[in-house]
Amino acid sequence: MSRVAMTPRKLTVLSLAALAACWPLLPDFTVSVMASIALYAIVAAGLVLMTGIAGMTSFGQAAFVGLGAYASAWLCTSPHIAAVWPPALPPTLLPWLGLLLGLAVTLGVAWVLGAATLRLSGHYLPLCTIAWGLSLYFLFGNLEFLGGHTGIGGLPPLTIMGLSLASPRALGVLAWVVLMLALWALANLLDSREGRAIRALKSSRVMAESMGIDTARQRIRVFVLAALLASVSGWLYAHMQRFVNPTPFSLNIGIEYLFMAVVGGSGHLWGALLGSALITLLKEQLQDLLPRLLGASGNFEVVAFGLLMLIVLQRFPQGLWPSLARGGQRLLSPFMSLAGDAGASGASGAARTSGAAGEALARRDAEINPINPPAPLLPTSPPLPADSREPLLDAREMTRQFGGLIANDKVSLSLHAGEIHALIGPNGAGKSTFFNLISGVDRPDDGQLVLMGQAMAGKPAREFARLGLGRSFQHVKLLAARPVLENIALGAYRSGHAGWLRAMLRLDRHEEAATLTRARWQLARCGLQAHAEDAAGELSLGQQRIVEIARALAGEPRVLLLDEPAAGLRHLEKRALATLLHQLRAEGLGILVVEHDMDFVMTIADRVTVLNFGAVIASGTPAQIQQDPAVLDAYLGGVLDE
Ligand code: ADP
Ligand code: MG
Questions:
Q1: Ligand showing the shortest atom-to-Cα distance for residue 472
Q2: Beta-carbon contacts of residue 579 (< 8 Å; ≥ 6 apart)
Q3: N or C: which terminus of the chain has fewer CB atoms within 10 Å of its end residue's CB?
Q4: Nearest-CA neighbor of 64 among 310, 232, 279?
Q5: 3-state SS, one letter per residue, for 318-369
Q6: Cα dihedral angle (489, 495, 501, 507), rounded to 10 degrees?
Q7: Is 244 exposed, middle or buried (0-12, 13-18, 19+ CB in 10 A)?
């Protein structure tokens, strides 16, 4: 690019540089407000990840801030520690040990609380966070060694390489550095394999498990990470105030943290900073103004925040950040480069590859050949059973009852490599129920399922995925707000290795580029390459079904289960889908399709099994099925002839 262009990332760096340059000149009061904003934003950033992105609401985050603060306060002031402290070690190490202690305690407490409460769904989880938020708060106030309600005073300042951070001006710098590092690491995390898995938690846990993601473990990790960020903020806070008492860690403040995350933009990391700034500044004003207006003292600002949150959520369901970012973009558009560096839109733009990497990918995109796949990252599925005449999937007498209704009545069906098997039947015949049984989403009441030669009784859906089963859903389950390409890369979750730490430090770029290249290839092969960067939810329903197929293919399955893939497709699109399915069959996949469009079924299928009222009434070649009196009867005659 020839001219010097302003990108959101450059804008962020420039703003931070300006803040740094002004920092020594700002009045003390402004500095301490700015430092508080950074401390709040560190906590809110964790909440954005946990609540906005992973879909777990917590009112209790202030308690984790308290754990970080109290751990260091206790360690730095306890006479017991002072008594055993080796004289050879400088006492300036104490606060740093306090940080480690705080992190360790928070890790333990968050893990136990998470394991106990994250299984709860719906409103029970937020209620539980209130319960433990309150409990920890009362614990802080009632433990003798933590100073009871008076708290602990006389904390030493932090020192870094001999430099004392006693003033808020000095500590504020550290707070902002920690905040920026946290935002950077979280944005990196969200722009990775694990980040896609985290986003899938909110969208649909059933879908996430079918992609091979251990959702229970993923939820606990998100919860613990958010708690650790809160704990670091508490540690900084304690050494800025040099004093702790229980008040800043109460449920009230926990609710304020949630306001910050939600008002700023629950799905956007930068929204954490926006929300913290807004709420902190408003609180400053309202704490004086409201009691004067109302002629009584009290924490009326909490009521004002509640109203504010209602209004914001009504008018801006995504929080204020997306609108602000859009407004800023419009204002700056004359200066902005079109290179599409999405840095400043934080998480929202993180999926898009930036700068040089983006151009490299675009180049590679042009080279993508829909016929020849790029080299696989790793062989993802275990080898086929030794005897390839063995079916890939063998369901024997599968039965599933819902109350008195027998949705599947001893259904047997097998699927071989290089075969397209269609499962048809009138509405309510039990096709989707059967799909759920053979993909591990639901458990049969009776019957046996063998996948790739392994008995699957009692195994979770992600184990089915591991053995090479990919599926689409009758009711499309995509990350609607995310780009199509990201949705497809989610399907390749199991083929990656990079964990959370690597992703946060951006050490996963090589693997990530390979994953995206393969995702692009799957997309091209399914004919949707033009939509790679579009939000999945903006596509037509028919196209979204194709995206689901591409996502399943990204997992390199041996067995593909497609629930009504042709619904909503136009004639030419159906032809393209039939061609794709034939190509996949030629590659040796076993494909089981539920489909209503009989023309489509009869042209693609090698074998057809017909369900009616939960039971198999016929099975054979399309020609046999079209002549079968029981089938014609079930379809009230004639439908099959069209
Ligand atoms: P199909 O996919 O062939 O249209 P389904 O498998 O969705 O049929 O449904 C088969 C029968 O089982 C229907 O009568 C449906 O109402 C019932 N059913 C499906 N899922 C459930 C469920 N989770 N709870 C109760 N009944 C269900
Ligand atoms: Mg169905």
A1: 2
A2: none
A3: C
A4: 232
A5: CCCHHHHHHHHHHHHHHHECCCCCCHHHCHHHHCCCCHHHHHHHHHHHHHCC
A6: -80
A7: buried
Where do the DSSP E strands lie in 353-509?
A: 393-402, 405-415, 419-424, 446-451, 454-455, 469-471
Closest residue by CA, ligand 1 atom 16: 428
Q: Is 569 in the pocket of ligand 1 (CB under 6 A)?
A: no
DSSP string, 198-260: HHHHHH-HHHHHHTT--HHHHHHHHHHHHHHHHHHHHHHHHHHHTEE-SGGGSHHHHHHHHHH
Whether ligand 1 lies within 6 angstroms of the CB of 404 is answered as: no
* CA nearest to 552, candidates 211, 66, 225, 86: 211
Which of 47-61, 140-154, 337-351 shows the lowest per-residue confidence on average (mean pLDDT)?
A: 337-351
Structure tokens at 18: 């300006």
Find the distance separating the first CA and the last CA of the chain, reported in whole Å: 58
Give me the pLDDT at residue 619, please: 94
497 by DSSP, 3-state: which?
Answer: coil
Give the chain's length: 642
Count, in order, helices (H) and strands (E) of the chain.
Answer: 26, 14
d(CA 149, CA 126): 26
Distance of alpha carbon 459 from the chain centroid: 23
Q: Is the CB of 427 under 6 A from ligand 1?
A: yes
State the distance from the centre of ligand 2 to the C-alpha of 483, rounded, in angstroms. Answer: 27
Say which residue the tokens 């690491």 belong to: 185
Per-residue pLDDT reduced to its tens digit, 240-279:
999 999 999 999 899 999 989 988 887 899 999 999 999 9
